[in-house]
Amino acid sequence: MLDSIGDDVYRTWSHEQCRQEIGNLVQGFNNGLPVQILCQLATSIAGSPAAACEHLSAFLTLKERKAMVKKESGSNKRLRALLQSTLMAEK
Fold first, then answer.
1. Which of 35, 17, 33, 32 is nearest to 82 (CA)?
2. Which residues contact 23 (CB under 8 A, 6 or more apart)?
3. What is the helix (H) or strand (E) element at residue 90, kind and residue range?
4. Distance of CA 60 to the CA centre of its chain
5. What pTM value is reported for the model?
6. CA distance 63 to 22
7. Taking a C-beta distance cutoff of 8 angstroms, is the pair 59, 24 a contact?
8. pLDDT (tens digit per residue) in 15-71
């Protein structure tokens, strides 16, 4: 139940509101917010991993996103799958 908290509110936001809030999350990540939280919240706000990736791509280069996946996931396959689906989604 808590996984979807806020989803109803996020669906009412405009594309620009979503982009701005995901930009705030990226700033939070740069200041220590765990990458798993960044990805989960960005997905909730955007509505899907692919949409989250679209927004995150506006703030992080492909090189930065690839480095995040490599550095943050290590040998954790579940975390790697989450990061790849959110940071590296195909368009």
1. 35
2. 55, 58, 59
3. none
4. 11
5. 0.85
6. 19
7. no
8. 999 999 999 999 999 999 999 999 999 999 999 999 999 999 999 999 999 999 999
The DSSP secondary-structure symbol of 4 reads: G
DSSP-assigned letters across all residues of 21-58: HHHHHHHHHHTT--HHHHHHHHHHHHSSHHHHHHHHHT
Q: Which amino acid is at 45?
A: I
- Sorting pLDDT into bands at 50, 70 and 90, what band is 13? confident
C-alpha 60/C-alpha 57 separation (Å) is 5
What residues does each domain of the chain span?
2-87
